[in-house]
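Objective 1b. Sequence-to-structure analysis of Fructose-bisphosphate aldolase.
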Amino acid sequence: MASSSLVKLNASSSSWIGQQSFNQRPGSSCRLPVSNRRVSVVRAAGSYTDELIKTAKTIASPGRGILAIDESNATAGKRLASIGLDNTEANRQAYRQLLLTTPGLGDYISGSILFEETLFQSTTDGKKFVDVLRDQNIVPGIKVDKGLVPLPGSNNESWCQGLDGLASRSAEYYKQGARFAKWRTVVSIPCGPSALAVKEAAWGLARYAAISQDNGLVPIVEPEILLDGDHPIERTLEVAERVWAEVFYYLAENNVVFEGILLKPSMVTPGAEHKEKATPDTIAKYTLTMLKRRVPPAVPGIMFLSGGQSEVEATLNLHGMNQSPNPWHVSFSYARALQNTVLKTWQGRPENVDAAQRALLIRAKANSLAQLGKYSAEGESEEAKKGMFVKGYTY
């Protein structure tokens, strides 16, 4: 198909090629017939279309969400250091084994995003982590981006690298058992955001999504709008609408199958340093307004990130968004908002593993109830109410 060949022609490109992305430049030796230049063709995502849609629907199943444990080795080291542990592979493996082997986890968790190290690891008993997940009907996922770097020509902003070699890496991840992928880029409101940064974020996400689908992985599309700043919630809504409009424009330009993707947006909140905090009802109202204006109903699932909110805040806000029917499955893809109490309960001690796993189930169940619109914050611990926002936080 002409559209597929055009997609693959640019599969390794990491640059934004602009409004004329599928028209040949003057003087090009590879010219399309005039009649074919502006034809809109739905991309079939190769032989994986049916599988992609099935995987996305499995993850977006009632009462379940995503456990994100895809922290890089450096970030995992920060988490371990907070409880006095060295950043060694054995310690990272022990912590992730604690999380993934929690009995009953699959009742509340439908997918887990892994770091590459974890995808290829096994438990201390020799069972592959991907098989541990499958046995609980949890879909294994994989972080595929290569992190943020400065964006030249911008207002001190970043872009996400990792498109080079993504197709071959994705094929290996699929072979290992991964069935969905994550790519995180960020937009900073205090930094503008500049038109360049928004377009780079949207184009990178779209290329990643197309390449992922071509290799059998459901892409999680994640342009995180950072909490940093003292702006009001109305400013966040304005920026979020602009970002998501750009993202869906380029997803369509790249012929991404919307039924085979998942979104991981930030909630629409005031800046973390704004003088007035918003209630869960207000956050739900603004966030759903943005989604209904920008996200097609063909998208099966919207799995929110917590972005530095406290465990209870993240759960309350999710609950608020599920008080009335939505066109999509509105759920969670939390890292710190699922792990914070778990880590502090564990403290790296084998005798605390059971208690830590119970703490994980408490948080997972709370968010499951929030996804169903049935959560109550009554009885939540003071630890779960502590905010986790860190200004200028890096992963």
